[in-house]
Design brief:
Blueprint (H helix, E strand, L loop, with lengths): L16 H5 L3 H25 L11 H15 L13 H23 L4 H15 L6 H18 L1
Helix pairs in contact: 2-4, 3-4, 3-6, 4-5, 5-6
Length: about 160
C-alpha cells in the first residue's frame, strides 16, 4: 500500500470588493442617531434655559437670525468634512458640531424662510455624513457652500 500525498486545503476566499468599502450598517445607524440626539439636545437645552430676555427664546425674525448665527459659529470650527470620521476625539467634536449647526439652521429656516438656503446646504452636509461621503470634490463643495452662506450672514 502506498501512501498518498495529503490534499492541500482550498485557497481562502476573499469578500467581494464592495463589502470592503461599505461601513457596517450599525455604525451608520449610530452616527445618524448621534446627529439626531445632538440636535434634540440643543433644542431641549434652549427651551429649558432660555429666558424671556434672551434673543433665542422667541419665535421672531431676530430669533431666526440668532439661530443662523449660532449654526455658523459652530460650523466655523469644522475645518473639513474629511476630518469627521478619523476616529479621534476631535473628529467626534466636529461631528457633534455639524449636527448641532444643522439643527439650528433648520430652526432658523422654520422661523424665517430667508434662511432656507442655509438649511438646505446643511441638509446636504448631514446627508453626506449619513452616507459616509465626506471626501472628494463634492464634499469640499458642500463644505464651501455652507461656509459661503455663513460668510454672507456676517455682512
Amino acid at each position: 500500500m502506498t501512501a498518498s500525498a495529503p490534499i492541500p486545503p482550498p485557497p481562502p476566499t476573499l469578500p467581494p470588493p464592495a463589502a470592503e468599502r461599505r461601513a457596517p450598517s450599525r455604525w451608520i445607524a449610530l452616527w445618524v442617531a448621534a446627529v439626531v440626539a445632538a440636535g434634540a439636545g440643543i433644542g431641549i437645552g434652549w427651551l429649558l434655559w432660555a429666558g424671556s430676555d434672551n434673543a433665542a427664546s422667541g419665535t421672531g425674525s431676530d430669533d431666526a437670525a440668532a439661530d443662523a448665527a449660532g449654526a455658523c459659529q459652530a460650523w466655523n470650527r469644522v475645518p473639513a468634512l474629511s476630518k469627521i470620521y478619523t476616529n479621534d476625539k476631535t473628529s467626534r467634536a466636529y461631528f457633534a458640531r455639524v449636527g448641532g449647526a444643522a439643527a439650528l439652521a433648520q430652526s432658523a429656516a422654520q422661523l424665517d424662510r430667508s434662511y432656507d438656503a442655509l438649511d438646505k446646504a446643511f441638509q446636504d452636509v448631514t446627508r453626506r455624513l449619513q452616507t459616509l461621503t465626506v471626501k472628494g470634490p463634492g464634499a469640499v463643495a458642500a463644505h464651501d457652500k455652507v461656509t459661503t452662506l455663513c460668510a454672507r450672514l456676517d455682512n
